[in-house]
């Protein structure tokens, strides 16, 4: 009947099955905001994990710096010999000194090198060449130290450099620090022990950059902690992706 149509219950939207659309929109808005909050928190958590992971540098515990220079005259295991034999390209090469202190040269055999200076090694090599038929062998021996450079440098690698090379020069050989490098958090690892070196002050002329390196030393340049440009870019990318997903969900819900 007409009077039923104008019933107060129907007008106020309290009749079962006739609730206005606004009643359904409110719960959806609540769910939408909860989803926004969840995605935002997830983005922040992901970014924090990335920043924390990037801030960690796997180096041994530091110890007090030891800048005492050692005698670089005698060769030691881990060094290398750059040998050039005039008119013999097959023997001319770079040869490492093994852990026992010997260098193995194809065609000449095994020769003791550790504990000797380059002049003594040159004499032994010249004698070995004479024994194998070289009348007047002309030979040059250049000793090299082999040092590993890791962490935030542009060209991490194992480098063969001249004896007496210091830390600052080796950092230059490795291409210099990256944009993420924390030079104050540089480690020099020697004989299983590590000490911290402030390479930022070394760039300003401090004695830290003049530490002399030796074969088997490992240099690790640390990474800056906190929000870097790379981490910020990743955070914005994740947030943008989350907002895109929410916009799509909103449009699908209203269509």
Helices and strands in order:
Blueprint: H1 2-5, H2 8-11, H3 21-55, E1 62-63, E2 80-85, E3 88-96, E4 102-105, E5 109-112, H4 118-131, E6 139-151, E7 157-161, H5 167-173, E8 181-190, E9 193-197, H6 199-202, E10 218-223, H7 229-254
Parallel strand pairs: 1-9, 6-10
Antiparallel strand pairs: 2-3, 2-6, 4-5, 6-7, 8-9, 8-10
Helix pairs in contact: 3-7
Summary keywords:
single chain; 255 residues; alpha+beta; Outer membrane lipoprotein wza fold like; wza like fold; 3 domains; eight-stranded mixed sheet; two-stranded antiparallel sheet; 37% helix; 25% strand; disordered N terminus
What does this structure look like?
- The chain is of the alpha+beta class and 255 residues long.
- It contains 7 helices and 10 strands.
- It has helices at residues 2-5, 8-11, 21-55, 118-131, 167-173, 199-202, 229-254; strands spanning 62-63, 80-85, 88-96, 102-105, 109-112, 139-151, 157-161, 181-190, 193-197, 218-223.
- Strands 1, 2, 3, 6, 7, 8, 9 and 10 form an 8-stranded mixed sheet that branches. Strands 4-5 form a two-stranded antiparallel ribbon.
- The radius of gyration is 35 Å and the shape is elongated.
- 19% of the residues are buried.
